[in-house]
Amino acid sequence: MTAQAVRWTGQPTPAEIRATVDAGAGPSARGGWWALLPTLVALGLGWWGLDARDLWNDELVTWHATSLSVDQFRMLIGNIDLVHAAYYLLMSAVTAVGGDSLIALRLPSVLAIGASAGLLTLIGRRLFDTPVGVLAGLFFALLPAVSRYAQEARSYALVTLAAVAATWLFLRAVDRPSRARWWAYGVVLVLVGWLHFVALLVGVAHLLYLWRAVPGEEPRWRWSATVGIAGLFVLPLLLLASRQSGQISWVSNDSDAVLRFLENLTGTLPSLVAAGLLALLAVAVAGARWRPAVLMLLAWALLPPLAGYLTFAWLHLFLARYFLFSVPAWALLAAFGVCRALQLLTRERMPAVWLVPALVLVPALAWQGLPAQERVRSNEADGQPRYLDAVRYLGQQVKPGDGVAFNDGFGGPSDIARKATSYGLRDQLRPRDVFVDAPAAETGWLTARECKNPALCLGDTKRVWLVETGHLNDPLAGLPPAREALLRQKFLVKSVQRFDRVRVVRLERKPA
Question: Would the pTM of this model clear 0.85, i.e. be above it?
Answer without folding.
Answer: yes
